[in-house]
């Protein structure tokens, strides 16, 4: 399964003689968008091969990974359990678009406190969950493991050889790691961190087979899922001019950062940039309900 590359035209890029092409992974699948589809692919095959009938995974209230896992499990005839961060959602999840859609896809939830959520990798905690739910195939939070990285290595193809720079947004760094491993020797991968903090660099270092990459940490806008009016207006303007929607948590921040770097002459003339549109558009509705409460402008859908 391959996505299409789309050239996008902006006066800024023309002025700096830099080419920008978007790889539309967001269009790969109507519900399991972008990199979450890649990350689940080999995990689903493994779950089936090991004769599991249930997937269990972790995520937050607006998680693209929860949405993707619920839909993929349904498609493969597997049960799905989502362990969700935030006990308070127990009574209000029906009004959350991500969770109610995942429920309609058959996912069942266990809501736990933020404190308990920190144990998500603790073998004791996993054992407890197995007592409660029976055997399951465990997909880690954000979906990143070695099979997920293998799936993300398939994002790049021979035709992408013409680019010098490959950009992606980074959460756990699994997608960036796949791209780094699959990149051609003349290419450099830029991961735009969607989170505050430096740990991501070490995480990626452990997962990759070369050092032709850099983690860009200047465009997280205050941390995971934090957004500003400036970012919203940028995303709306990008949509108006290209007809391509960006999500506010990952791809919007990457594109904002990329524009800023081009403005600052980070890239030499004739640089050819491939930016991966990793998807995440299912989260826009949830973000808009948050923005409405804060009296901020809404994202155009
Ligand atoms: C999850 C996600 C990412 C981050 O992927 P990682 O492999 O965790 O770094 C980027 N973009 C979108 C749209 C996502 O949903």
Describe the protein.
The chain has two domains: 4-31 and 146-293, 3-Layer(aba) Sandwich (Rossmann fold); 34-143, 3-Layer(aba) Sandwich (Rossmann fold). The chain is globular and about 60 Å long. The longest helix has 15 residues, at 35-49. The chain is of the alpha/beta class and 301 residues long. It has helices at residues 11-15, 35-49, 64-76, 97-104, 114-117, 123-133, 146-152, 174-182, 199-207, 229-242, 251-263, 284-293, and strands at residues 5-8, 19-24, 54-59, 79-85, 107-112, 137-139, 165-170, 188-193, 213-216, 272-277. The chain contains twelve helices and ten strands. The model has no long low-confidence stretch (mean pLDDT 96). The strands form two sheets. Strands 1-2-10-7-8-9 form a six-stranded mixed sheet. A four-stranded parallel sheet has the order 5-4-3-6. Residues 34-36, 64-65, 142, 144, 169-176, 247, 250-251, 278-280 line the site of pyridoxal-5'-phosphate. Pfam families: PALP (PF00291). Its cofactor is pyridoxal 5'-phosphate. One of its GO terms (molecular function) is D-cysteine desulfhydrase activity. Residues 14-279 form the Tryptophan synthase beta chain-like PALP domain.
